[in-house]
TrEMBL record:
This enzyme's EC code(s): 5.6.2.4
Alphabetized CDD domains for the sequence: DEXHc_RecG (cd17992)
The protein's name in its UniProt record: ATP-dependent DNA helicase RecG
Source organism per UniProt: Proteiniclasticum ruminis
Keywords tagged on the record: ATP-binding, DNA damage, DNA recombination, DNA repair, DNA-binding, Helicase, Hydrolase, Isomerase, Nucleotide-binding
GO molecular function: 3'-5' DNA helicase activity; ATP binding; ATP hydrolysis activity; DNA binding
């Protein structure tokens, strides 16, 4: 019954079924496992919660409603005054012009939101009417017309009828202090109290990470038994290629190239993770490996997370490999139809092409006839999903995943345990350490004088900031705000441009190209530039509101400079309201080593940004974050190993059940 279609539920017609399926919900079990992405806890109003941070519910009577008007930045703003037991409340609503018609003077409402007691009155931004009765309100990720209320209604229907059988043996539940599966699922959708909710989360995370671990153990052993991989031979021209490279490879690069070529010679298909700190020279390693595949008469794909980066890889591939007669092509969303059609035909005919591109490469229409190797430059943007798509297309291809997000080795080995690991742990000779400074927000003018200095020396600079547009409600800096400020102030007359994710690919590309060509001296951008951009003449990275970014991300951003012969600088401007913010950012000042930073970052806050894995539905990890739940993961992983080894009857039974679900393409998170 649990694998029945959602259409068997009351209230699910054709349209709703379709929408649920778009959200990946096909069966009743899928729905049960569609857990909230978070919970809002609204406390009952109390003086001590009027701090602007706690979320509360409060009774309020309307005393005055002002007319909405437009602010300088084009937003609408409306104010409603209320009376509460704690005094007058001023509620300001941005971009909700309709709000004034929802309240009547003299009527009392229950509001929810964040409230802050100021001198004369309480203030709140965008509080809304509370219609929930429970204290802990589940928040679901929603699409189309599917609402949280609908999901709850459907889940309730299922839970009235089914009891989810326990599938872990008693002793493991006891040993790991886990509650039973049925209670966990119920409480995740309808939390009774905080304590049960946190126990339920622990149980389901354990469940997910157990299933995830078991799955990768099985796929790894299957791959190693796989005899259908391609045996590539070593091209005699590899030596010539290496000689044509204008610099000496580092020892680490040479070692990693050997590891990859050795995999290529074996009959088991390669599945390898290549890790290297920012600027350690992963691209050239990828190109050598791809060259050998083409020399064997096969096609290859080199996939990047953005168009800008794809173009950069393409140019580099062409420069290095075209002299050896390799046909390199670029395929992205902006490739013209004629060129695209031509590429499709050639790929289908089996012509050995080196395809460089974005995820356009994994569209259904692209058919590789003889795909020998896939390299994805993940940085940390790609989820496992996209990777799986390419792998499925041709199961025998070699797969190499490049990542510039260093993960401590032991952790990488457990988390990516279906991948072999290569690490470039050495930077090219002669690189100068990037001088990193942490600067308080109040002193930022000095920073831009330094930028001007560098530009006058002929160098270029990046300025990164969290927001695109100026926002009155926020104290964060924005691309447009900075452009305005700097072009009138310290950097007057300096050629500047901006870059952000809302621009079209073409626009972004044009800006990047003029920056690379040195026509633009200062580039103001959101984090879109963090991904692998290589402009050796850029020597200055300014990061505004650095407190907003994770260490791994800051390290990536900093890695955009110090890529050439010039002394480079990174200035992090931050509002250091707390000691912990300062300490966290000082790690960046202390070290330029991505592996060290990643470890510190994990210790401090266990960031989920480290891995692309958990966002992907494919991995089955909906609740867990392998980084912040790492301790629990190790336990789940160890338990998965005992089941995988199948020494007892119970373990064997569980493993068989798992394999059965896997082979039937069923959801295996709950085995029942
Ligand atoms: N052994 C080397 N000696 C000198 N320069 C090198 C060496 N290897 C690579 N480079 C150069 O270093 C720069 C950075 O290399 P690359 O773009 O491959 O870095 P990366 O590892 O991809 O880093 P990121 O993840 O930051 O993009 C390039 O300009 C490249 O040509």
């Amino acid at each position: 019954m649990i694998y029945d279609s959602v259409s068997t539920l009351k209230g699910v017609g054709e349209k709703t079924r379709e929408q649920l399926e778009n959200m990946g919900i096909h069966t009743l079990l899928d729905l049960l496992l569609y857990f909230p992405r978070g919970y809002d806890t609204y406390r009952n109003a109390d003086e001590m919660y009027l701090n602007g941070m706690d979320k509360i519910r409060i009774e309020a009577e309307v005393t005055k409603i002002s007319k909405p008007f437009r602010t300088r930045t084009g937003k609408t703003m409306a104010t409603i005054w209320f009376n509460t037991e704690f005094g007058a409340l001023k509620a300001t609503y941005f971009n909700m012009p309709y709000i004034t018609s929802q309240y009547k003077i003299g009527e009392t409402y229950q509001l929810k939101g964040k409230f802050e007691k100021k001198n004369k009155f309480i203030e709140s931004i965008n509080p809304i009417q509370n219609r929930d009765t429970e204290e802990i309100v589940p928040v679901y990720s929603l699409e189309g017309k599917v609402t949280g209320t609908l999901i709850k209604k459907l889940v309730r229907q299922i839970l009235e009828k089914v009891h989810i059988n326990e599938n872990f043996p008693e002793d493991i539940l006891k040993h790991e202090d886990l509650i039973d599966l049925d209670s966990a699922v119920r409480n995740l959708h309808f939390p009774q109290d905080e304590e049960l909710l946190s126990k339920s989360l622990k149980r389901m995370k354990f469940q997910e990470m157990f299933a995830y671990s078991l799955k990768i153990m099985i796929s790894r052993s299957r791959r190693q038994e796989e005899e259908r991989g391609i045996r590539f031979s070593m091209s005699p021209r590899l030596k010539l290629l290496k000689e044509s490279i204008p610099f000496d490879m580092t020892n680490a690069q040479n070692r990693v190239i050997r590891e990859i070529l050795l995999d290529q010679k074996k009959s088991a298909p390669m599945n390898r993770l290549l890790q290297g700190d920012v600027g350690s020279g992963k691209t050239i390693v990828a190109l050598v490996a791809l060259f050998n595949v083409l020399e064997n008469g096969y096609q290859a794909a080199f996939m990047a997370p953005t168009e800008i980066l794809a173009k950069q890889h393409f140019l580099e591939a062409e420069k290095l490999l075209a002299p050896f007669g390799v046909a390199v092509r670029l395929l992205t969303g902006s490739t013209k139809k004629k060129a695209r059609d031509e590429i499709m035909v050639q790929l289908k005919e089996g012509k050995p092409l080196l395809m460089v591109g974005t995820h356009a490469l994994i569209e259904e229409k692209v058919q590789f006839e003889k795909l020998g190797m896939i390299i994805t430059d993940e940085q940390h943007r790609f989820g496992v999903n996209q990777r799986a798509k390419l792998i499925n297309k041709n199961q025998m291809s070699e797969v190499l995943v490049m990542s510039a997000t260093p993960i401590p080795r032991t952790m990488a080995l457990t988390i990516y345990s279906d991948l072999d690991l290569s690490v470039i742990d050495e930077l090219p000779r002669g690189r100068k350490e990037i001088k990193t400074v942490l600067m308080d927000h109040a002193k930022r003018t000095a920073c831009y004088k330094k930028v001007l200095d560098e530009v006058q020396k002929g160098r270029q600079a990046y300025i990164v900031t969290p927001l695109i547009d100026l926002d009155e409600e926020s104290d964060l800096n924005s691309v447009m705000g900075l452009l305005d400020e700097l072009s009138k102030g310290t950097l007057k007359g300096i050629p500047m441009a901006y870059l952000h994710g809302k621009m079209t690919s073409k626009e972004k590309e044009q800006v990047m190209e003029s920056f690379k060509a040195g026509e633009i001296k200062v580039l103001i951008s959101t984090t879109v530039i963090e991904v692998g951009i290589n402009v050796p003449n850029a020597s200055m990275m300014v990061i505004e509101n650095a407190e907003r970014f994770g260490l791994a991300q800051l390290h990536q951003l900093r890695g955009r400079v110090g890529r050439g012969e010039y002394q480079s600088y990174c200035i992090m401007i931050a509002q250091m309201k707390s000691q912990s913010t300062r300490e966290r950012l000082e790690i960046m000042v202390k070290s330029n080593d991505g592996f060290y930073i990643a470890e510190e970052d994990l210790k401090q806050r266990g960031t989920g940004q480290l891995f692309g894995v958990h966002q992907s539905g494919h991995s089955g990890l909906m609740l867990s974050d392998l980084a912040s739940d790492y301790e629990l993961f190790l336990k789940a992983n160890a338990y998965a190993r005992t089941v995988y080894l199948g020494n007892t009857e119970e373990d064997q039974r569980m493993k068989d059940q798992f394999l059965h679900k896997l082979s039937q393409n069923l959801n295996y998170i709950c085995l029942n």
